[in-house]
Structures are given as C-alpha cells and as structure tokens.
Design brief:
The chain has 436 residues and is mostly beta strands. 10% of the residues lie in helices and 43% in strands. It has two domains: 16-161, 3-Layer(aba) Sandwich (Rossmann fold), CATH 3.40.50.10070; 170-431, TolB, C-terminal domain (Neuraminidase), CATH 2.120.10.
Length: 436
C-alpha cells in the first residue's frame, strides 16, 4: 500500500524542489475587495502557456479551474482571446484585451532544462492599467506540474485579492461506501481540487475525524473496531501508523496543537466524556475537563493558548472556550439551537461550527468571544467544517435526502457556496496547511 500511496500522492517536497522569484507589487490596492463581499467575479484571461507540450496547456487549465472555483474570478473563454501564443518577453496588446473585458491576464512559458526539470515563467498583468503585477519563475520535476499550477494560482489569488491563497493544499476525509447498515469508512487524501485521490487506510477498521498536523505530513484520526476505539498517528510520507496508547473508555475526536507537539481528544467513560491532552514528546496525558456531561470536539486556537470545545453541561450542546491548561472554562454560544464541531480559524478571528435548529443544519461562524454569529449555509444536513489555511474558505460535508454525504465549500461571506469535485460519498474533511 505504501508504494501505491507514494505513486498517487507525489507531494513529498524532497522529490520536487520548487523555486520562486517575485517582483515587487506594482500597485498597493488589490482589485478584489473580498472583505466587503464580492457581488461580481473578476474577468481574467489565462491563455495556454507556450513552450513544452502538454504542460503549458494543462497548467493553464488547472489555474483557470482553481480561480473559477474560488467564486472570485470568471475565466474568459479562450475562443475570445485576441492573441494566441503570447511570448513571455513581449508585452500583450492591452487595448485588445480590454476590448474583451479582461481585468487580469496571465501569460506563461514552460521549458525543459538539461536535467529534465520543468522551468515555468509567467507574468500577471493588470489589463486596465497596462502593467505587470507579478513576475514568477518555478522549477519542478515533470510529475509535479500540478503543484506548480497550484502555486501559481496562490500567487495570482493573493495579488488580486490581498488574501493568502489556498490551492497548494490537500484534504483528508472519510470516504464512505456500502449500505448505511454496513457502511465502510476509510481515510482518503486528495489535492484540494480533487486530483490525485488515494486511500490511506484499508481493512475492517472504521475511520473517523482525520486531522492534519502543522507539517501536513502527519494525520491523527480515530479508528473503530469490534474491540473498541483507538487514536492513531499516521505519517503520509513513510506510511507508518502508531497508536497513542490504551485508554479506559472510548477515545475519539483527536486534534493536533498548532505546534504539532500535542494532541487533544475526548475519552468517554460510562456516558461522561471529558477532554484530555497528550504531549507527544513524552506521551504524558492531562485531563482538562471534569464536568459530569459530554465535553468533546476540542480545537486549539492558532497560538495554542486556548481550546474551543462543545459541551452539553448547560442542557444542550453549546460552544465553550478554555485556556489550554483547562482553566477559565466559559460558554460563548447563546443562540437558538444545538452547536457542535467548533474549530478555530487559522487567522484566530473566527470560530466555525455546525448548528442544528429543528430538523435543519447550518454551517456558521462567530467571533472568539461568541459575538457576531453568522450563518453561512442551510441544508438538510451540513456538518463538520474545516478551514482553508487562508481563513476565508470552509469545507464541510452535506447530505441531502436519499443521497450520501458529499464535500462542499463556502466562503466566510456565505455568498460563494460550491460542491467539491470529488464524486464519491465523503464526510469529515480536514484541510491541510499550505504545502512547502
């Protein structure tokens, strides 16, 4: 299985060194003000890159698909392009591109070095201003051309929105198959655009709640079998799996600390669940909650100083926050409904959650003090949000009557809601940090 995994997930950074040079910004203000909400996507032209085939055309297609899927850009139909095969060293004919409504233009070239590596150069142009915004150059092995396309997408997104990109990332999730009475749940990993899917677990174990470490190469998850539940660490690069140890009671809902040195999780004993944290350096464990209720779903703040979790100690599931040592436990959710699966934004400004009101489910966000609650989605069954590393996009699973769960994304404004391009039944996604 390990050999198959390396073949299908070519993301080990040692196998592909990517270098980049970036010019200084040509103008201070990005043309897309995402913090105010975007009502109209920015028209952008992305012709096929010139040079080594088929890489130029394929790289342009991936960039176009990434930006279109973000909801902030509208790639222009190539049939409307006034120029074909634009050379990287020559300026475009800006009036012609203005005439077709392009606000941004990406021009690139792909060459193959003597050692067989790809060299990708490109310019990002501001068409109305008739000037270059960014000059980039990457090198990579040929099998990592998609990584190059994602990194270019991140740079274009960042320059035109002022926000960090999120395309050079992966998603791990629970792939579901079989009838509901005998559902098989395996961990699967893929690029954020659905490419390069590969199973990480096989066999009879039922996998739940996968979560990435800060280095994007390690995952923690819960596996359920007839003999009970265990929490595992799984190294994607080596294929090694190890358990966190034996516990009295059911263990579940693990999540790494921001530095990757600790894992917080829940232990259920006789219907009473409490939150524990384990130091991975010495495997010492500390109990953080002692309330006679269900405390679960711990998630660290980005600086590691606090933990958000949900608890029914007040009579229904609500969101609570405590210091990382278990002190100062206090409730922050006070709206109608049941709140579960809280997770802190990578920016630290918001906490995302699942909310149930009656028979309807929602994905929402609130500030870290509980104020400013905003509902982003409403559906038959939406649950389990996870943040993109830029803190602006959330992925979650959605189930509709008569169908299995599928992966969706929504941005923090709630305006841009899209299905993910993974075709199978999937739940409990976890978004990786940006890859190195």
């Amino acid at each position: 299985m390990f050999q198959r995994l390396l073949k299908l997930v070519p993301v080990v950074i040692a196998s592909a060194t990517l270098s980049m040079g970036v010019t200084l910004p040509a103008r201070a203000d990005p043309p897309i003000e995402v913090n105010k909400g975007v009502e109209q996507a920015l028209p952008i032209a992305i012709p096929a890159f010139t040079g080594a085939a088929p890489y130029g055309a394929e790289i342009a297609k991936v960039i176009s698909a990434n930006l279109e899927r973000s909801g902030l850009f509208t790639p222009i139909d190539p049939a409307a392009f006034p120029e074909k095969d634009i050379e990287i060293g020559l300026l475009p004919t800006f009036p012609a591109w203005k005439q077709i409504g392009a606000h941004a233009l990406v021009v690139g070239n792909v060459t193959v070095d003597a050692d067989g590596r790809l060299r990708v150069a490109l310019h990002l142009y501001d068409v109305p201003a008739s000037q270059s915004l960014v000059d980039l150059q990457f090198t990579a092995t040929p099998d990592n051309w998609r990584r190059v396309a994602h990194k270019i997408s991140d740079q274009v997104y960042e320059k035109l929105t002022g926000q960090g990109g999120y395309f050079d990332t992966r998603v791990v999730f629970v792939a579901e198959s079989g009838p509901k009475t005998h559902r098989l749940r395996r961990l699967e990993i893929m690029d954020q655009d659905g490419a390069n899917p590969s199973f990480l677990t096989e066999g009879p174990d039922q996998a739940f709640t996968p979560r990435f470490s800060v280095n994007s190469q390690e995952i923690t998850y819960m596996a359920l079998r007839d003999s009970g539940a265990s929490i595992y660490l799984f190294n994607i690069e080596t294929g090694r799996r190890e358990t966190l140890g034996q516990f009295q009671g059911m263990v579940f809902a693990p999540r790494f600390s921001p530095d990757g040195d600790k894992v917080a999780f829940s232990v259920d004993k006789g219907g009473n669940s409490d939150i524990y944290v384990m130091d991975l350096r010495n495997r010492s464990t500390r109990r953080l909650t002692t309330d006679p209720s269900i405390d679960t779903s711990p998630a660290f703040s980005p600086d590691g100083s606090q933990i958000v979790f949900n608890s029914d100690r007040g009579g229904s599931p609500q969101i609570y926050v405590m210091n990382a040592d278990g002190s100062n436990q206090h409730r922050i959710s006070f709206g109608d409904g049941r709140y579960t699966t809280p997770v802190w934004s990578p920016k630290g400004d918001l906490i995302a959650f699942t909310k149930q009101t009656g028979s309807t489910f929602h994905i929402g966000v609130m500030r870290a003090d509980g104020s400013g609650e905003k509902i982003l989605t409403t559906s038959y069954l939406d649950e389990g949000p996870t943040w993109a590393p830029n803190g602006r996009v959330l992925m979650f699973s959605r189930e509709t009557p008569g169908s299995g769960a599928h992966l969706w994304t929504v941005d923090v404004t709630g305006r841009i809601e899209r299905p993910e391009p993974y075709p199978g039944s999937a739940s409990d996604p976890a978004w990786s940090p940006l890859l190195n």
